[in-house]
Specification:
214 residues, alpha+beta, 4 helices
């Protein structure tokens, strides 16, 4: 579950419920964007530290799309991207085709501010998670806007909406108390699938790191 705290925010849980109920009809498209200018931070653009946009922030976009399509393995993956002058992947766009001709796409960037939203389009309407989509507190379904206030706690936690990490912590505790060896929300198979897709995209982009030799 490392770095997938997004799944445990109430806004994400509400969207999963909407999808499970079939409120939006048949799925057609899922789309996500996550981009911030991180060039002022040393490690994201440091090739020696395997700095990159895809594996650090693109994972949030991919997890959203995988959640929408029920953890299915995509039939086809297409990708294109831009390299930073240091050699790391800078801005990346990915298209994923799933069974039935439906598809998801995402763009991530460590040098440009993107919309930082995620949406689902189906035959009966649309649902959208608003900025910041990786730690969401707002969901719009069929034009109806709903807010999910963060739990009480410190206002500054190093990360945007950082107190929201408590949602994941509570889920881990609940799993341990039940004697579970993996999360029913993000099982091991899901983590492995996400890792495999990201590696395929990275190879398509031709991005390599020193760590690949080990």
């Amino acid at each position: 579950m490392e770095a997938i705290w997004t799944c445990f925010f109430p806004a994400s849980e509400a969207l999963r419920s909407v999808l499970a109920q079939g409120t939006l009809g048949d799925l057609r498209v899922a789309r996500a964007e996550f981009g911030k200018d991180l060039t002022h931070v040393p490690w994201p653009v440091d090739w020696a530290q395997a700095g990159r946009g895809l594996l650090d922030i693109g994972i949030y976009c991919l997890q959203f799309i995988s959640m929408v399509f029920g953890g299915q393995k995509p039939e086809k993956i297409s990708a294109m991207g831009r390299r930073h002058e240091t050699g790391v992947d800078d801005t990346v766009s990915v298209l994923l085709q799933y069974p039935g001709g439906v598809h998801g796409s995402f763009t991530c960037s460590i040098t440009a501010q993107l919309s930082n939203t995620a949406l689902v389009i189906s035959t009966k309407g649309m649902a959208q998670i608003l900025d910041p989509c990786w730690c969401p507190t707002e969901l719009v379904v069929q034009g109806q806007h709903k807010e999910f206030p963060l739990p009480p706690g410190p206002k500054e936690c190093n990360f945007t909406n950082g107190i929201g990490m408590s949602y994941e912590a509570k889920h881990v505790r609940d799993c341990l108390c039940k004697g579970l060896k993996e999360s029913p929300v993000i099982p091991l198979a899901e983590s492995e699938l996400l890792a495999d897709i990201l590696e395929e995209v990275r190879k398509a982009l031709g991005v390599t790191f020193l760590q690949d030799k080990y």
